[in-house]
Amino acid sequence: MSDQPSPYGSAPRAQQATRVRISHLKQMKVDGQKWAMLTAYDMYSAAIFEEAGIPVLLVGDSAGNNVYGNENTLSVTVDELIPLVRAVTRSTQRALVIADLPFGAYQASVEQCFNTAVRFMKEAGAHAVKLEGGIEVLPQVEKLASSGIPVMAHIGFTPQLEHQLGGYRVQGRGEDAQRLIDSAKAFEAVGAFAILIEMVPGDVGGAITAAVSIPTVGIGAGNQCDAQVLVWQDMAGLRTGRLPRFVKQYADLRSILHTAARDFAGEVEAGTFPGPEHTF
Ligand code: KIV
After folding, report:
1. Catalytic one among 50, 142, 188, 198?
2. Can you give the pTM of this predicted structure?
3. Across-strand partners of 196?
């Protein structure tokens, strides 16, 4: 049980001043209190999500696709992610900010992983890091946890291994479920503070959640996980094209922005903007 006040309570969450800590997340699992996580990559989105009561923000390597316009998450670099993490930590007071370690920046060795994680903590102010993989990255998770760097392990479908996994495929079907349960337990044993589970059958997400005492965060892993995460541009309806089944769009921000930009252009072309009220 944490000796710190909970970041939640009867007051609206946006008014809480306490920084969300990994101890709060563990306690929320004990209390059966579910929570939401969103990605964030910039000042305004981060501040809005915190104000809306999102306790955990992930500066995901999905910035590769959603900020830098790459085809997938593989090519984004530590140097590209650090300024985004810094923007999110600078513009929030309460959210726990997790930095995603990008492909190639932690797999080579425990030392490489440690050095990358330290850069995110020192240069960007991250409160925790996340990394993808199975038991091959257990030594990395153990080193970070034992060095005071909270680490979330990402299992199931791991986008950085897209080419090895043969594309975007649901993982953990049939007998493979046990492998994921075992890796979640192994990550807990070496000190991970949470497990992110991506694209597995709902009952497997539930089995992993029941097998560990640390929180699980699902994305396409059913509703038995302790928390849920979505990429914010998916959640808010900015993205076009075919969406993964696990995405729910809670707004149509694309239409709103489209209309605003079109109206602005129309008024400029018609000479009605700027009007006298916008003129010195
Ligand atoms: O980078 C990312 O956006 C992720 C998602 C699974 C949330 O890791």
Report:
1. 198
2. 0.94
3. 154, 217
